[in-house]
Write a structure and sequence with these properties.
With 109 residues, this protein is mainly beta. It has one helix at residues 96-102; strands spanning 2-9, 13-15, 25-35, 39-44, 50-55, 59-73. It contains one helix and six strands, in the order ββββββα. A hairpin with a 5-residue loop joins strand 4 and strand 5 (50-55).
């Protein structure tokens, strides 16, 4: 919510209000409420995001944007990899052999 000190005219507003769909995330519904009412048009940017552009008429002393999305996630849980006992607490010490394998990566850039 935005509140203004007096009546203002709103310019075009661009919103990224919904998640980008993928094979693991499906958008089931997306509802957007604007106060004051505005006309929404949709486009897709080069990254695949849905971009809403709102055009407002008249003047107002506040702007409220509400977006509610329902999604379905079908991805599997992230794999849990075993952690070496020596690496459970951080910072941890590399062995001398590991330091040698890291080589130039251990020098500050």
């Amino acid at each position: 919510m935005y509140r203004f000190g007096g009546q203002v005219s709103l310019n075009h507003h661009r919103f990224l209000l919904r998640p980008r769909e993928s094979r693991d995330l499906r958008l089931l519904s997306n509802v957007i409420h604007l106060t004051p009412l505005g006309e929404l048009t949709w486009a897709q940017d080069v990254f695949g995001n849905s971009v809403a552009t709102a055009n407002f008429t008249g003047s107002t002393d506040s702007l409220v944007v509400e977006s509610l999305s329902e999604v379905e996630l079908t991805s599997t849980a992230w794999p849990v990899f075993p952690v070496s006992a020596s690496a459970i607490s951080y910072p941890f010490r590399y062995t001398d052999e590991e330091w040698m394998d890291l080589g130039a990566l251990v020098r500050p850039q």
